[in-house]
Amino acid sequence: MDNNQLIPTVNCSRLKFLEKPTCTSLFILKVYLLPTIFKGIKKDIEKLCEAVPQLVNVFKIKDKIGEGTFSSVYLATAQLQVGHEEKIALKHLIPTSHPVRIAAELQCLTVAGGQDNVMGVKYCFRKNDHVVIAMPYLEHESFLDILNSLSFQEVREYMFNLFIALKRIHQFGIVHRDVKPSNFLYNRRLKKYALVDFGLAQGTHDTKIELLKFVQSEAQQEDCSQSKYHGVTGQKGSLSRPAPKNLDQQCAAKTSVKRSYASAQIHIKQGKDAKEGSVGLSVQRSVFGERNFNIHSSISHESPAEKLIKQSKTVDIISRKPATKKTAMSTKAVASVTMSTKAVASAMRKTTSPCPAVLTCDCYGTDKVCSICLSRRQQVAPRAGTPGFRAPEVLTKCPNQTTAIDMWSAGVILLSLLSGRYPFYKASDDLTALAQIMTIRGSRETIQAAKAFGKSVLCSKEVPAQDLRKLCERLRGLDPTTPKLAVDPPGCASLENTDHKASSLGQTPPAQHSEGSLCKGDSDDCGSRPRECTTNLEGWDSVPDEAYDLLDKLLDLNPASRITAEAALLHPFFKDMSS
Ligand code: ADP
Ligand code: MG
Known about the structure:
36% helix, disordered N terminus, 12 strands, binds adenosine-5'-diphosphate, 579 residues
């Protein structure tokens, strides 16, 4: 291996955490932190090259540019055409990712990606259980860094391009499920955009992404088959969740979640009888809808079969047959890529038990949860994603979720752009997240919308809906009557404090994971206030009503009437813009 390839370049964005460096902090940075950071990156690159040695033949891996719970992303260069060096992003998926999950992510990129602001894929490498997706590299800004320096026109362009991407994936029946700034790359100078990260994507009932059909059907199957608690664990964005191997902590987290649910002042019930149910301590995790940690046992020991899958060979990826059945089941990543869809379905099938009979109880409509309801199994609905971006129907575990959930997340992004606050909502659990939504959209409105999708939400105190323009102008400091620092959005990291939540909504549930934070592993979700505080006033003194009208339609509590990506592109907010 050429050692030169392993020397990382300086990534300036990583150095921004010391905003006003003092002599001491610079000394600490230089003497202690930089060598440690570089050593760590160098080691990670070495490990990657050992795990997938064929990468070395093609790429010079320069730096690590992203590390999340589910993947590490590296910047590499490659001479794919003679005389032309290209920048490539290499996404190394955690080896415990489920094969069907990996294959589905890859299929989203290959089938829907490569145009309309959706990231494409160039190659995919595998060795044993290590999978690396090679994508065109798009240099991008940190959302937090630029939030308050964006002109109003740039905000319009950002949202317009996000809707172009969402329209594209929704046409393919892909629900992204994790729309947030760190998954929508933005190069401000080049005005380039790319939606990335289909690691949590699910399919609509008529999805054109074959493998997503299996991802979705499993989620539905689990709804009826699982008697153990799956609901609150494994939230992607709630990065308080433990590392894959730390199963003891997972169990502990589940237990604490149960307790706090029992004392919550907001209750969600489905139909007449369904309640939050009992908490089992099984370490079994859902693969589908939430990323899987639980397949250590399936790590292959077979001899390596290295593959290079070209972007244009989508059909091959789906239809290629496994060499043997054993290969298909034991070799995680490539097996799934090569497995026929039928084989995938049978691989995923589980023995199911029938749904339990409905028992009636007398706690409906009260703020108590009776023992009958406490003993019910947990309802399972897809709930992956980042809590602050989750739609009300996700937070209330509505089983019928559609592409509308991505539109809600886009609305939360627009809310950040218009208010200048990011993250806007920051909650470590679903009930807190729902309470925070109520403080903006109103408790009565939320309860009413929940009713429309079959959920009964009880709230101990009524809070009115806020006027979106007034709210955003106050937060942005454009309202001359309110000093900018006097107002903070609910749960905004800068003022995240349970007292605030309690006073807003009576007694809302306390934050359950004290260690929970959206920040871990998702760097641009960190921090509370934009680092650049100088608001670029260009266009901000006369934000048209259309902006708030679109925001209102995106943050429609009812998914059935929420605006679609296609309709959003035609909204007057984007008049005079064309794709
Ligand atoms: P994860 O599933 O771990 O969140 P992502 O696909 O979202 O992985 O990638 C993590 C980060 O890596 C992104 O937020 C982005 O900063 C960077 N990244 C991912 N893909 C690319 C790309 N094609 N070009 C440039 N940076 C990328
Ligand atoms: Mg991501």
